[in-house]
UniProtKB/TrEMBL annotation:
Organism: Ogataea haglerorum
Residue ranges annotated for the Tetrahydrofolate dehydrogenase/cyclohydrolase NAD(P)-binding domain, each copy included: 227-377
GO terms for cellular component: cytosol
Protein's name according to its UniProt entry: Methenyltetrahydrofolate cyclohydrolase
InterPro entries: Aminoacid_DH-like_N_sf, NAD(P)-bd_dom_sf, THF_DH/CycHdrlase, THF_DH/CycHdrlase_cat_dom, THF_DH/CycHdrlase_CS, THF_DH/CycHdrlase_NAD-bd_dom
Highest taxon, organism lineage: Eukaryota
Keyword match NADP: yes
Listed HAMAP family: THF_DHG_CYH (MF_01576)
Subunit structure: Homodimer.
A GO molecular-function descriptor: methenyltetrahydrofolate cyclohydrolase activity
Pathway stated in the Swiss-Prot or TrEMBL entry: One-carbon metabolism; tetrahydrofolate interconversion
Domain Tetrahydrofolate dehydrogenase/cyclohydrolase catalytic: 90-206
Length: 380
């Protein structure tokens, strides 16, 4: 299907310089190396109308199900945009799927080069909290999908701290284990800080140990592993080509595993970072947010950020996980973030939804950190 891509009214198109259409003219441009970032959210064998803009894209080979062996087809990248505000929804689910596919491909290649290469993750879960069990199943399923040997060691709710520490030490000394993940929260009688610090730094793929966290805050130091949620957020910003250097950034929340390390990563990237928290007055919160180019909220409070608090064109990353009553749902509640999506999307240039925004990226970064640990152990 060589030739010029048809333009649809109200839609933007660009020519792509990428293979697999080498030798064809696509969008009036000769094929070569694509200058457009590959951010595939949807593959389709022909243009289809959406609520926003369509970007015609041929930079990467489409999935096998869409390949035609006898002629060249044009595939499209559909970017979700609001037609009224030109707002773009950052689809963390699609971006994480892209990353997981890349991780799976790298693992296959490394196993082909060295059959003994076998990335292994062990998750320790204490008790039977339903939310923890859900997260563990999600992580184990993701491991299986990319070729990582993931296993669960479940301990009783009343396990002693000494027994839990002994189990962690066994895994620390096992060379076949590349990552140890202690599922949080732990029962009240266990010291979470002591437990997370017991995991060897080189196996701390959650990045929660004091050694890993301290390295983030040092000017010229590099942590062995960055906590997965902050790392996922930085990946999203880079993927979406959001400029950080010289921008005003507000981070809502100062926890040791999200807000704290994320604020430092954003500062290292050149942002002017303001951290707001539970002691920040509503007036101060609105002032800082109204001047922010980028807002990241991780406070765990529904409706914490509303449209009247943000400026036009800002980027909003919603890390919150909250549940609010909803009589239309079977469970009687629905998940939402910290951000009032309906009002904020009218002003934001880019925004993450909940669910489907940051959450999938956190899981993807667990896999990414585990692969990195396995490669280091093999000196790959």
């Amino acid at each position: 299907m060589p030739g010029t891509i048809p333009s649809e009214t109200g839609h933007k198109t660009h020519g792509c310089f990428g293979s697999p259409h080498n030798g064809h003219t696509v969008g009036g441009t000769r094929a070569g190396n694509c200058r457009w970032p590959c951010q595939t959210l949807c593959w389709a064998p022909s243009p289809r109308r959406t609520a926003g803009h369509i970007y015609y894209h041929t930079s990467h080979r489409p999935p096998a199900a869409h390949r035609e062996p006898t002629f060249c087809q044009i595939y499209i990248h559909v970017e979700k945009k609001c037609p009224r505000t030109n707002m773009s929804i950052i689809d963390g689910k699609a971006i994480s799927s892209e990353l997981r596919a890349s991780i799976a491909a790298e693992i296959r290649d490394l196993k082909a080069q060295d059959p003994s290469f076998a990335p292994r993750l062990v998750i320790i879960q204490v008790g039977d909290r339903p939310d923890s069990s859900t997260y563990v199943k999600m992580k184990l399923k993701s491991c299986q999908e990319v070729g990582i040997d993931g296993s669960l060691q479940k301990l009783p709710d009343d396990v002693s701290e000494a027994d839990l520490l002994a189990r962690i030490n066994e895994l620390n000394e096992d060379p076949s284990v590349h990552g140890i993940l202690v599922q949080l929260p732990l029962p009240a009688h266990l010291d979470e800080e002591r437990i997370t610090n017991a995991v060897k730094q080189e196996k701390d793929i959650d990045g929660f140990s004091e050694l890993n966290l301290a390295a983030i805050f040092k000017k010229n130091a590099a942590a062995k592993f960055i906590p997965c949620t902050p790392k996922g957020i930085m990946y999203l910003l880079k993927h979406e080509q959001v400029e950080i250097a010289g921008k005003n950034v507000v981070v809502c929340g100062r926890s040791d595993i999200v807000g704290g390390p994320l604020s430092k990563l954003l500062e290292k990237a050149g942002g002017t970072v303001t951290v707001v928290h539970s002691k920040t007055s509503p007036e101060q919160l609105k002032f800082y947010c109204s001047n922010a180019d980028i807002i990241v909220s991780a406070v765990g409070r529904a409706g914490f950020i509303t449209g009247d608090m943000v400026k036009q064109g800002c980027v909003i990353i919603d890390v919150g996980t909250n549940y609010v009553p909803d009589a239309t749902r079977k469970t009687g509640q629905r998940m939402c973030g910290d951000v009032d999506f309906a009002s904020c999307k009218e002003k934001a240039s880019k925004i993450t939804p909940v669910p489907g925004g940051v959450g999938p990226m956190t899981v993807a970064m667990v896999l990414d950190n585990l692969l990195e640990s396995a490669k280091r152990s093999k000196k790959v």
